[in-house]
Amino acid sequence: MQVTVEAINPVTKKVFIEIPSEQVDAEIEKTYANIQKKAKLQGFRPGKAPMQLVKRTYSDAMRDQVMRRFYEQTLFKALDEHKIEPIDSPTIESDILEPGSPFKYSALVEVMPEVQITDYTGLEVTREKYKFNPENIEGELKRMQENMAQLVPVDESAAVENGHKVTIDYMFSVEGFPEETSNEENAEIEVGANKLMPGFEEQLVGMKYGETKDITVTLPEGYRTSEAAGKDGVFKVTIKDIKRKELPELNDEFAQQFGEYGTMKELREKMSEYHQKQEMERIENEQKERVIQALIEKNPLEVPQSMVKRQLDHMLENLKNRLKSQHMSIEMMGLDDEGFRQRFRESAENKVKGGLLLMALVEKENISVTDEDLEQRYEQISGGNADMLGRIKEYYGTNRSNKNNLISEIKEDKAISLLLEKAVVTEVDSIERKSEQE
């Protein structure tokens, strides 16, 4: 066979394979002979049908078998000979297999990039200064108060207001898109929480128990059916129940419901301490993200799209799990799987680039993990719980694959710490943050 390799880009190669006609003919005859032995044709006992009739009847089956066998016999042999290591299943394109002619096909193969990390010192990054804001504590107390609220039915003559929890039946439709039609019974919505399509919750305000109303919203960009984005969607909504929240008072009795606190003062002090810890962790994590982004900008590289796809799948699954725990879905956000992938593709690509560059830095700087490093990580995972610590050690001690993953995480953390040690860090009062799916 003849093999030619073309580099499409640093992470994609196209392998052209040609199998000579003599080999094609021999394989065709061999395949037809095997088919003839099992062929069941009317008027003939199994295995006794004339070869010409077998060829007329089973030509498609023959082609499928021969082509599949050639792929199996030649593709990975060719890849191995040319030292090409695919990171995903190759995409194959081929000619039609014909007797008396060579069989030609090509395979598009993605490979790991050769990462050359050269510029990783003196990266310029910003770090947010921590500043205590009492309003954050009061906001968190308000959320705790909301979570402990009792839902109380309103008077039947009362209208829906922001903050009410309503139960509705609805039918949804988009003119010209019958496939978008859907309906739901007993859907629960917190009005004013702004978790649904823009414009929907606002139009619930003022409706009364038993009332039916058409609510029209403009379907947002990134809507699950891209052709319907910008069109009007209509919800025919019926209010079945309206409840208001009855909030508990923020007093010492409220604080005591959280266990170890006797007064609101004690609860506020502990919350301030916890909030500072959380904020410092957030500032640290965001600074790490910024130094990785600076590393990507200084060391540009192309990455395989199959790796980006896997990262997107991981991000999407995480988001779905988080929303499911809140009894929500991505459809309620006006997205579907494809819309999510379009919106967060760049983010996923940067995560892949960052991971590959950090791996390269680990190798370049010979970063290793000691037993002491592992012990510290076990302690961190256990959160100071002695019983949990023992189980964690046993778990990683008996599961080699997960221990190797943990070692890789520690190496990556060390690589990030090295970047920050060598970076030029500027402290700023505040940094605008953008929402991103992890």
From TrEMBL:
PROSITE patterns (alphabetical): FKBP_PPIASE (PS50059)
Residue stretches making up the PPIase FKBP-type domain: 163-223
InterPro entries: PPIase_dom_sf, PPIase_FKBP_dom, Trig_fac, Trigger_fac_C, Trigger_fac_C_sf, Trigger_fac_ribosome-bd_bac, Trigger_fac_ribosome-bd_sf, Trigger_fact/SurA_dom_sf
Protein's UniProt keywords contain Isomerase: yes
Domain of life: Bacteria
Keyword tags: Cell cycle, Cell division, Chaperone, Cytoplasm, Isomerase, Rotamase
Enzyme Commission identifier(s): 5.2.1.8
Similarity annotation: Belongs to the FKBP-type PPIase family. Tig subfamily.
Name used for this protein in its record: Trigger factor
Species annotation: Pelotalea chapellei
Gene encoding the protein: tig
